[in-house]
Amino acid sequence: MKKLFLVLTAGVALTGSAFAADLAPRPYTKAPPMVAPSWSWTGFYIFGGVGGGLWEANNVVQDSATLVPLMINQRQGGNGWFGTVGAGYDWQFGGNWVAGILADGQFGSLRGSVADPINGFTGSMKLEDTWAVGARVGYLVAPNVLSYINGGLTGSSWSGSTLTTLGGTLAGFHTNSFTNNNGWFIGGGVENNLDIFGITAPGWFMKTEYRAAYYGHQNVNEIFDGTNIIGANTISFTPIVQTVSTSLVYRFNWGGPAVAHY
């Protein structure tokens, strides 16, 4: 009986010690702070899209031999749609600033007219494609929204035309296609990530851009059909092209916001 009492007493003592240990204060471990969303605009991107535009050109009819103007300036023009593709590289710096380089092309048909009122000739001419290289700089109005301006050098390709009289009959003259690589452009736009309305689209962006391109004058010869003989008159053609486009952009380095830890 005495031995049983000693065993029970020891058991109670051990149980009490274990219970007291469970109630002892434990060291407090603070949860790590949440990681704030963080985006980086530094890296390569590609894009493709569609747009619309118009061009207008100063037309001055000149003597082919002397290039002396034979009339005052007239304005001709056209409009249409196009597709665009391009690529670039951006650097984010100073917190919310982004700067980068770019190259792109536009392919389509902005159709208009060219005219020689002295001879009573008119023809259909279209802007077929352009190229551009340049740079842009912008400011992040939100971590995933960039407002920017851009500018650089540009060139263009124009179709030839069949000249007719003002009555619509063939004039027996045409103009050849030509390129005008003596141009510059300026523009601007907004680019934003497509993670909106609860949709996750890491790396995918949309940008909408306005651009104005100014080209030097090009002498467009009136040529006899079936020959390479230049006619008496030449048209000095100096175009300005304005476009608006919307493009889908993919940024290769875009990882989205950092994941929060607790």
Q: Structural class, from helix and strand content?
A: mainly beta
* Mean pLDDT level: 86
Q: State the shape.
A: elongated
Tally the beta strands: 11
CATH architectural name: Beta Barrel
Largest sheet: 11 strands, antiparallel
In CATH, the topology is named Porin
Number of domains in the coordinates? 1
Number of helices: 1
Residue runs with pLDDT of under 50 for 5 or more positions: 1-23, 257-262
The CATH class name reads Mainly Beta
Compressed to H and E, one letter per element, the order equals: HEEEEEEEEEEE
Name the helicity range: under 10%
Q: What share of the residues does DSSP label as strand, in percent?
A: over 45%
- Beginning-to-end CA distance, first to last residue: 57 Å
How large is the radius of gyration?
35 Å
